[in-house]
Amino acid sequence: MNFLEERIDLACAFRWTARLGMHEAVANHFSLAVNTDGSQFLINPNKRHFSNITASALLVLDANDTTTMQQPNAPDITAWGLHGALHRLCPHARCAMHVHSIYATVLASLADSRLLPIDQNSAMFYNRVAIDDQYGGLAFEEEAERCCKKLQDPATMILLMGNHGIMAIGESVAQTFDRMYYFERACETYVKALWTGQEMRVLSDEIAEKTAWEIENYPNNAAHLRELREILDREEPEYRD
Question: 41, 67, 74, 92: least surrounded by Cβ within 10 Å?
């Protein structure tokens, strides 16, 4: 995929996240590495609503540039904190999506923030979620670096940021968007199951791991984003600009 296609993919992810209501006003941020070692990355401009993001509006930052926040087009300070730290510490995480989506944030606010494997969607994340339970305030550089160290295991898909939200990571926009999307769906099912107060039918470790592996290796994992791009091509073609 070329550089322009990567920009279009990321712009699509922003637009569709807004349609899903998983954005947070003009906050939250997505990034995508665009060089070999992952240190240079695309990210959304400061205080731009997800529904207004276009491919050309995305900034290109260098995680090792200590002057970033002094530049005229500086990103949000917490965006720089989280994504700068991530792309310095975790080169395998080519793409990262940070949101405060409702059900994932509910789970992040519980004393026990584990997502138990009670259905196929939640099993997808079995043993693939890192939980940070040491919230220390806004994700400025020190707090962000502490959190992102929990994503250094390549098997991890999601960082559940206690009392905050989530960071989904992956090798591409398509893969990361799917992880963010399905994690929120899984959290919604789990939280609503908790609401019933009834005993849950939790999958065995063996079946949960088997299901997670099968989903990881399922073909055509880029189809979801491809279909979303086709819809936006018809309905909001300016996202490509």
Answer: 67
Distance CA 164, CA 33 (A): 24
* Count of the separate structural domains present in the chain: 1
Could you read off the pLDDT of 174-229 as tens digits, one per residue? 999 999 999 999 999 999 999 999 999 999 999 999 999 999 998 877 999 999 99
3-state secondary structure 111-170: CCCCCCCCCHHHHCCCCCEEEECCCCCCCCHHHHHHHHHHHCCCCCCEEEECCCEEEEEE
Contact (Cβ atoms closer than 8 angstroms) between residue 211 and residue 117: yes
**Domain of 118: which CATH number?**
3.40.225.10
11 neighbors 55 (Cβ within 8 angstroms): yes
